[in-house]
Amino acid sequence: MSSIQIIRDFASPQEGFSRTLRIYTPDGYDPAASDRRYPVLYLHDGQNVFAHPESALYDTWCANHALDSLVREGQLEPWIVVAVDSRDNRLSEYSPWDEPRSHVLARGEPYVRFFVDTLKPFIDSHWLTRQGPAWTGVMGSSMGGLISLYLGWRYPELFGRIGGLSPSVMWSYGRLFHEWTSHTHRWTRIYLDAGVHENIDPVGYWMFYGQATRDFYFHLKNLGYGDHELHLVLDPEGGHNERDWQRRLPEALRWLLR
Questions:
Q1: Where are the alpha helices (DSSP H) in 43-89?
Q2: CATH number of the domain at 3-257, out of 3.90.76.10, 3.40.50.1820, 3.30.565.10, 3.40.50.1450?
Q3: Which of 29, 39, 79, 141 is the most exposed place for a label (fewest CB within 10 A)?
């Protein structure tokens, strides 16, 4: 059976505090019996990722159930999933750049350095991971989607599979559009989705996710990303919540991780 291990108080020296890790290993993962290597998917907002007694109290993505089913049906090979909990200041921690309209100061760079310099080396040294961008993914929703895209753009040699569910690409006046100006010329697979009419006003201005995600998809297409590298799903009924991300997750995983 698959299992979930929780590591609390995992130090993030780049940020100056500790985080909680939730690590899913698939059925059959047994370092004592096999040296098989597994690809790894990293996820943000870890408390919302798994169906587990110690996850968030309300809806989660139920990623463990989705992966178990996809592997059992032969649609995916087994993956390790590393989910990193967010903290109270998640808007800043997932912000690569300041957002002056909502007075959010960027704390994304220390979080990114934690991912690259501390978290990924730790996982690669303690689990049987298959390394390289084709076998390493990063995914998140909303601001987690933005920081996932940022990680894939900044470190394409590390993260080749990038998932943005309702990604906040309009953040900081659409700064990601202005920074991501060329194809990385690395192995790449990018999944984007949003609700067609999805919009929220959490920080003092309306964020229209359907239009912004569609615009970013065509932005990447114009940079030369092909259909085998880039996929867009626009959900006619999609809202900005865990229930809808849970509903779309199997399709996202099926395309992104195959």
A1: 63-72
A2: 3.40.50.1820
A3: 29
Helix axes 209-222, 171-179, angle to 10 degrees: 10
Write the Ramachandran bin of 209: left for phi over 0, alpha for psi from -120 to 50, otherwise beta.
alpha
How does DSSP classify residue 83? E
Instruction: Give the burial class of 116: count Cβ atoms within 10 A of its Cβ; 0-12 exposed, 13-18 middle, 19 or more buried.
Output: middle
Least Cα distance to 169 among 187, 143, 202 occurs for 143
Q: Using alpha carbons only, what angle is made at residue 201 by residues 195 and 206, rounded to the nearest 5 degrees?
A: 75
Q: Per-residue pLDDT for 220 more than 80?
A: yes
- 170-179 residue pLDDT tens: 999 999 999 9
Question: Mind listing the pLDDT tens digit for each residue in 13-23?
Answer: 999 999 999 99
Percent of the chain residues topping a pLDDT of 90: 94
Q: Residue 246: enclosing H or E segment and its boundaries?
A: helix 242-257
pLDDT of amino acid 204 = 82
Main-chain phi, psi angles of 55, to 5 degrees: -90, -175
| DSSP three-state, residue 116 | helix
Rounded Cα distance, 75 and 103, in Å: 44
Q: Report the C-alpha gap between 133 and 241 in whole angstroms.
A: 29
Residue keyed to tokens 């959490």: 202
Q: Where are the domains of the chain?
A: 3-257
Q: Cβ(215)–Cβ(180) under 8 Å?
A: no
Give per-residue pLDDT as tens, 57-88: 778 999 999 999 999 999 999 999 999 999 99
Residues pairing with 145 in the sheet: none
